[in-house]
Design brief:
elongated; Regulator of G-protein Signalling 4, domain 2; mainly alpha
C-alpha cells in the first residue's frame, strides 16, 4: 500500500512498521502462521488428546504392576527404568547413590565395542569410583580394588566384574531391604494397590 498525500493513514502505518526491527516483524509473521495452523486443525488436536488419555491410562496400569514387582526381587527392580530411578532417589537420602551409579557405569561399559574407548572408559570409571580416595569411592575391599587395578593393564569388558558384583551384593543385602520399607516405596505400593482394586471394581 502506498500514498503520497500528507496525513494519509497508510503512510503513517508504513512509517510505524519501518520503525520496528526486522526481527520483530519476522517473529510476528511466524507467530501468525503458527496460530493459523492451530486454528485450522481442531479435529486433529482432539484426536491427539483422546489418544494421549488412553495411553496415559494404559501406562498407569503398567506402572502399578511394575511398582509391585520391585519387591519380588532385586533383579526385578534393576530391570525397571522407573525402579532404578526410584531406588537412586532413595539412595541419595542415604548418601550412597555412588554404588548404583558405579553399577550402571559398569553395565554401560560392557556395551563398549571399541578397544580404544574401552581403555579410556575403564580408567575413567576406576578413577571416579574404585581407586582409594576416589571422588565417589564405592565400598569394596582392598583385594577387589587391587584386582580391578591390575585388570586395567589389559582392559576388557569384564575388568570390573568382581567389583561390580561386590557392589551389587552390598546394595541387595543392605540398601534394597531398607528401600522396600521406606515411606516413599510404601506410598507407591499403596497407590498401585488402590489402582488395582479400583480397576477390578469397574470390570
Amino acid at each position: 500500500m502506498s500514498c503520497w498525500l500528507p496525513g494519509c493513514p497508510a503512510l503513517s502505518m508504513c512509517r510505524g512498521l519501518a520503525a520496528f526491527p526486522s526481527t520483530c516483524l519476522e517473529r510476528a509473521k511466524d507467530l501468525k502462521s503458527r496460530l493459523g495452523i492451530l486454528l485450522h486443525k481442531p479435529e486433529e488436536g482432539h484426536r491427539i488428546g483422546t489418544s494421549s488419555k488412553l495411553q496415559l491410562g494404559s501406562r498407569r496400569r503398567d506402572s502399578s504392576r511394575e511398582v509391585l514387582e520391585w519387591r519380588e526381587s532385586f533383579d526385578q527392580l534393576l530391570k525397571s527404568k522407573n525402579g532404578v530411578t526410584a531406588f537412586h532417589t532413595f539412595l541419595k537420602t542415604e548418601f550412597s547413590e555412588e554404588n548404583l551409579d558405579f553399577w550402571l557405569a559398569c553395565e554401560d561399559f560392557k556395551k563398549t565395542r571399541s578397544k580404544t574407548k574401552l581403555a579410556s572408559k575403564a580408567n575413567r570409571i576406576f578413577e571416579e569410583f574404585v581407586q582409594s580416595e576416589a571422588p565417589r569411592e564405592v565400598n569394596i575391599d582392598h583385594e577387589t580394588r587391587e584386582i580391578t587395578r591390575k585388570n586395567l593393564s589389559g582392559a576388557t569388558s569384564a575388568c570390573f566384574n568382581e567389583a561390580q558384583a561386590k557392589t551389587r551384593t552390598l546394595m541387595e543385602k543392605d540398601s534394597y531391604p531398607r528401600f522396600l520399607k521406606s515411606a516413599s516405596y510404601q506410598d507407591m505400593t499403596k497407590q498401585a494397590t488402590s489402582r488395582g482394586i479400583s480397576k477390578r471394581s469397574h470390570t
